[in-house]
Design goal:
Immunoglobulin-like, single chain, 212 residues, 17 strands, elongated, mainly beta, five-stranded mixed β-sheet, 7% helix, four-stranded mixed β-sheet
Amino acid sequence: MLELSIVNQQIAIAGKVLQGETQKNISGAIVAIIEMPEKFRAILSLKALQYGSQWEKMSERPDRKITSNDGYFYFTNLPSGEYLLEASLPTSPTRYNEVRTKVQVSSPINGKISTTMADIVLSPTGIKGKITDVTDPKKLITNAKVQIQDSGDTTISDQQGNYHLIGLESPKFGERNITVIVSATGYQQVLQQLNIQRGQVIAEQSFALKPK
């Protein structure tokens, strides 16, 4: 759990990074301050001189944090003003979008900084929908396999015939053409081509399978 009281430090911005489809916490995401008041920029310049060549290699700095196992991050002792945060997932840079959000830090009151909360949602790339029987649309197909051709991306439909295939590889700009293969015991295999874009989930991409 996030601790809002740290010895000799006051938390100015705090929040957590969430996955857009499941709302689950994301650990290991980088949250960086990319725009800031001049006072904080001056502080960073002095820190950079202090650390020298190690500065750029540091995983965590006053302007860069990595989310913990429960998805939380925080920045301490920030001067008042407007900040622009950018969140990304370095372990899956082509599977999730980058998100930027503006945050306002208020001036201290009686020497105490008021914490500004800023949750950030990272949207994955993917598809989701339902698998049914073409001869009876009300018949839901469970345990159908949905996979992306020539990749390890795969999932199985649940008891309601729903599938979610998220976190797919996608270019930073433009679209990626994929071939989706759907198969289930007792049914003919279906192939369909789709175009996907980074940070977007194609909803209601359903498939109707024909019995063998």
